[in-house]
Specification:
This protein is α/β, with parallel strands linked by helices. It has a single domain, classed as 3-Layer(aba) Sandwich (Rossmann fold), CATH 3.40.50. It is built from 5 helices and 3 strands, in the order E-H-E-H-E-H-H-H. Strands 1-2-3 form a 3-stranded parallel beta sheet. Strand 2, helix 2 and strand 3 form a beta-alpha-beta unit.
Length: 130
């Protein structure tokens, strides 16, 4: 079965990411969500396992599979490879969301981040980032 693949750091997963992935799910296309296996640092505070737990929780009950992949330098393809490469441009009410700002809000105790993160994963995100 073919799947639409999404590769990211997801630090943390937010409604902009959700909007992107939901573009394919809403078409009935199963998705494969790949989490880059990177060591935690200031910009990427979540471990690969924590990120995968958040994504698995967010997409429980959907046709979505979450995997870890080694960190990548680039995504490359040849001609006639049998799949599409798509760019989805989010609407302005989603496009402003920033994982960097969400991390700052969580660290400072500002709960306004919750409006930009799926309620199903609030507790996990909070637990991992506070």
């Amino acid at each position: 079965m073919k799947r639409a693949m999404f590769i990211g750091r997801w630090q943390p997963f937010h409604n902009g990411h959700k909007w992107l992935i939901d573009q394919k799910l809403s078409e009935g296309v199963p998705v494969l969500i790949a989490v880059r296996d990177i060591p935690p640092d200031e910009k990427n505070p979540l471990t690969t396992e924590e990120t995968m737990a958040i994504l698995s929780s967010a997409y429980e009950g959907h046709d979505a599979h979450v995997i870890a992949i080694p960190d990548i330098e680039s995504v490359n393809y040849g001609r006639g490879v049998g799949y599409e490469i798509n760019e989805f441009v989010p609407p302005s009410n989603i496009g402003y969301i920033s994982a960097t700002e969400i991390r700052k809000q969580i660290r400072s105790g500002d709960d306004s981040w919750k409006e930009n993160v799926d309620e199903k994963v609030h507790a996990l995100v909070e637990n991992y980032l506070r």
